[in-house]
Structures are given as C-alpha cells and as structure tokens.
Amino acid sequence: MTTGYTFYPCGDHAITLALGDRIDAGINERVIAFFYYLSSQQVEGIKDIIPAYHTLTVVYDLEKLVKKSGTASVYQKMHEWLQAAWLRHTGDSAVMRQMQIPVCYHPSLGPDLESVAKSCSMDIDEIIDVHTSIPYRVYLIGFLPGFAYMGTIDARIATPRKATPRTLVPAGSVGIAGRQTGIYPFDSPGGWQLIGQTPLQMFNVRKDQPSLLQPGDEVQFYQVTLTEFNQIRADEYPHP
Amino acid sequence: MSIRILKAGLLDSIQDAGRYGYQHWGINPGGAMDSIAMSVANILIGNEASEPVIEMHFPPADILFEENAMIALAGADMRATVNGQAIPVHQPLLVAKDSVLRFSGLVSGTRVYMAVHGGWQADKWLDSCSTHLKVKAGGYHGRSLQKNDTLLFKKSISKPAQIPCTLLPWRANLSGLYNAGEFRFIEGNEYALLNARSRTSLTSASFTIAQQSDRMGFRLTGPVLTLDSQQELISTAVTKGTMQLLPDGQLIILMADHQTTGGYPRVGHIISADIPSLAQLPAGKKISFSKTDIASAEKAARLQQANLQQLQNACNFRLQPFFANES
C-alpha cells in the first residue's frame, strides 16, 4: 500500500504519525504493527505510545528532555527518530489474537435492541444474527480504560449515536455507534445504542494486563442466554 | 507514622507525576494538576520532585498528625493552621505529634499540595501512585481521602518539633515557575480548519472558565468558534493541554484526567509550561490566549525546569546540615 504519511505535533510534548485520512483495516494494521515495534525499543524519555485508527502518537517527557537537549529542538529530534524508525520498520504485522466474547442480547440488557431493530426494519433475531456473523477488529482502545472501538459492522445494522446520551450505561453493555461496535468496561455515561451485555469483566485492575482486549485483536461475539449470562457473570465478578 | 483524616475534604487524593505508559489501554495518565506545586512541595523538604503528594481542593480535610513529621504545602493558599497557628505555603515545617492541620479560607489558587519528608505510603498501580477514581486503583485504595482514613508516611523526624510546629527558615521563590499572563498555545492539527474570524477571536477575545470544569478538563465559555467546513474527524490521540472545539463552538482544555483519544477538532494545545498556572484558576475566571510555536514552548519548559533545579539545589544545601544534625 502506498498511503502517504505525515508527522505533526500533538502539543509540545507529543508527536503524531498519520497514515492517510480514513478508517481502514489495512492502515490500522500498519499502525498497530508499528506500535508493537516501537514498544519493543528502549528509548529514553518516551512516556506513551498511543495507536489509534490511522495515527500513532508518541508522548515524551518534555521536562526531562529539555534538560538534556541544550538548545536543540526536542521536537526535531523526536521527529527524526520517529521517521527513521518508521522507515526502518519492516511492517511485519503482530500476531492477531482471536477473542470470543459472549453477549446476552436480552432486551433487559440491551435497552435499545428494539428501537435499533425498528429503525433497521429488521426483527431482533436478525440484528443478533448480523452482529454475531463476522469477527471485528479492535481498531483502538480509548474513551475509558479498556474501551475497545471495534468495526466494521454491517451497514444494515449501523445506527447513529443516541441524540441524548444516557447518564449511566452499565459496565459490560455492548453498543453500536455508526458502523462501530464497542463494550463499556465501566458504569459510565454514554451515547451508544445498547443492544446487549457481556458477562465478562472487560477491565480488571488486579490483572497485569487489565484490559481484556488489546489493539489489533480480532473479536467474535457469540450469543448466550440470560441464564448463561448470569452464570458467567457470577464467576467473573466474585463480589457482585 | 501516620496522619488521620478528622474531617473529609471536598476532593483530596494522592497524586504524583502521572501514570504514563498505558494510554494504549485507554488508561488516562492522571497525576497532579499543578505539577509545579507538587515539585515545589517535595523539593522544599528534600524529596524527589515527583514523590506522591496529597492534592486538596477547597475545603480540604482536617488532618491529625499521629507522629512528628516534616511537611511542606505548595500551590493554593487556603489559610492553613496547625493547632491554630497560621502557617505559610511554600515553606517547610516540622509538625509535632498530635497537632491538627486545618484550612480556614481560600485566599488564592484552587489546589494545595502537601508533601511529607520521606514520602507517603501509597498504593502503586501500573508504576504510579496517582489515584485513579474510575478504576479505583492507586493512591489510597483508589479513592479520595475520607473521615478516619489513616495514611502512613515513611519517615519520622526524631528532632522534636516545638508544639505545635516549627517553621524552617527558608521559602521557595516562585518567580519563573508560573505564568501570570496570557496562556500560550501552539497550533493543533485542526487549527487551520477554523475560519478567519474564529482564529482572530481565539487570540483576542476573553474566555471564562465554566462551572463544569474538573480534573478531566476545563470547559470555557466565550465567542462561538466555527470551522470553515464541518468535517467528520477520525478519533485520535489527545494530550494534556489539548484545546478541543466542541460541537457547540465552545472550547474544552484537557487536563490531568483527560481521555486518551478524542474526535473533536484540536484547535490548539496549551504549552506544558503554562498548565500549572491554568490548574490553579477557579471557575468564573476570565482568561485569554496567545499563539506561540514549539521552539518557544520548549524554551519556556527549559527555563521552568532550570528554575526548579535551582530551587532544588538551594533546598538541598539548606537541608544538608539539618539532616546531619538529625542523624
């Protein structure tokens, strides 16, 4: 692929590499491969590497780096380093993890299921069939700790965000926003259309890797009954 | 060695320089809103600049010292007293066992930081002691300090303080650490999308910090800013200081607890050196902006760090004989 790339400052302590200007699985795959490549390098002063749909942002320790740089531009140095790394990087993709996520599509857990079905002129079972028919890519994690933005869902079930966001969306809720789907890891306000709920704990602070999903994962949803949902949930959350 | 919270404050939490290295999991960095005050409080008593501190909002907690301690307050002036004796900010002191620290009024600023010599015994989660309220981790059991909480600190001071406290004879000079003027920003990637009138407004109008401002971000009210053409942006990373343009044409400046990614146009980014000053402003305050470039932003950060280093050298020099006598 010959997508153009650009660099720009994201504040005075971060630099962003942007690949093209659209949401595309191939571009995101390159972003994430480069993310894993950079993460394996030990570079002083790098605080964070944030992959998103078509961008990768490196946050650096300006306070520390200005002390060492004399009067030379820290940004210029970071730019040169990131560009060299980008050109050096072979583009080998990281191994994609495949994750199975149970979802209970019961109207009590997916309060927007009926209205989504109505607006798509489908019945609820068709919505469920379409939502579970293909695996989705985790393009990025953002918004909340462990919140995975996944896509791309079938255009037939794409639904815009709610005009007025809910003040409280329960943790585990599975939602749709446009052609994206996602899972709320925490009770939080939110505007996505809620079609179900997973019994899994998407973010567990006690784990070394607290976020169940990682950027670049492939996620397959499968339907569980309300009884199964409650069983799995009881195991996942020991203290409900 | 501990303090005990006699009465909870509005929002008192343990913070350090922030939790970096995990934004790819959506984990917001957090950390002290006013990193300069955090550094000054620590430096005054010989700690590392980024040692965890207690960040307090008005009204702060009433705090009982259950052991002698050397402490320093920095940032906002909230009329602190120890057993009724007024104590200044930005000056180290020895507090005697069984004394009570209280705050009786807001004089200036919005956040006061308390450091203890040797540091607080705080929970570390993912390399940082900053309190993450959402996931309930780090700091003090991942939450703000409440009545009857006991927070341990690592070192006592054997030299008995006079009752109730003894001020040590040096103060921090804050000149060169804060900015009292316009807030400087560099262009964001979407700055060029602003129409000409809005670009002018951004640097000529004044903006008011709105009530709905918190550790996540400062919402501003000011002239409505508009883009030349509305376009759907793809979510991408944001950083501390990012000025996002909300759909209603108003700005939000992202602060310590900011989300890791966002989809609103980033019209600018407040420079790092000016964030601590911004963090001390209350809702209702009017502010204005001036545009600068990265080279100037780096120069400002360099100068600020040099001043902080100078303060640290001076404090360490003063502390040396103190701790020599101590042992």
Layout of helices and strands:
The complex is a heterodimer of chains A (240) and B (327).
Chain A: E1 5-9, E2 14-19, H1 25-39, E3 46-51, E4 55-60, H2 62-68, H3 74-88, E5 98-103, H4 113-119, H5 124-131, E6 136-141, E7 148-151, E8 166-169, E9 173-177, E10 180-183, E11 188-190, E12 193-197, E13 218-223, H6 226-236
Parallel strand pairs in A: 5-13
Antiparallel strand pairs in A: 1-2, 2-4, 3-4, 6-7, 6-13, 7-10, 8-11, 9-10, 9-12
Chain B: E1 2-7, E2 12-15, H1 35-44, E3 53-57, E4 62-65, E5 69-77, E6 80-82, E7 85-86, E8 93-95, E9 100-103, E10 108-116, E11 150-152, E12 165-167, E13 183-187, H2 196-204, E14 207-209, E15 217-221, E16 236-237, E17 242-245, E18 251-254, E19 261-262, E20 266-270, H3 275-279, E21 286-287, E22 289-291, H4 294-326
Parallel strand pairs in B: 13-22
Antiparallel strand pairs in B: 1-4, 1-11, 2-3, 3-10, 4-9, 5-8, 5-10, 6-7, 6-9, 8-12, 13-20, 14-15, 14-21, 15-18, 16-19, 17-18, 17-20
Helix pairs in contact in B: 1-4
Question: How would you describe this protein?
Answer:
The complex is a heterodimer of chains A (240) and B (327). Helix content of chain A is 26%, strand content 28%. Chain A is α+β, with helices and mostly antiparallel strands and 240 residues long. In chain A, the strands form 3 sheets. In chain A, strands 5-13-6-7-10-9-12 form a 7-stranded mixed β-sheet. In chain A, strands 1-2-4-3 form a 4-stranded antiparallel β-sheet, covered by helices on one side. Chain B is α+β, with helices and mostly antiparallel strands. Helix content of chain B is 17%, strand content 28%. In chain B, the strands form 4 sheets. Chain B has an 8-stranded mixed β-sheet. In chain B, helix 1 packs parallel to helix 4 (294-326). The longest helix of chain B has 33 residues, at 294-326. Chain B is elongated and about 65 Å long. In chain B, 52% of the residues are buried. Chains A and B meet through strand 2, strand 3, strand 4 and helix 2 of A and strand 16, strand 19 and helix 4 of B.
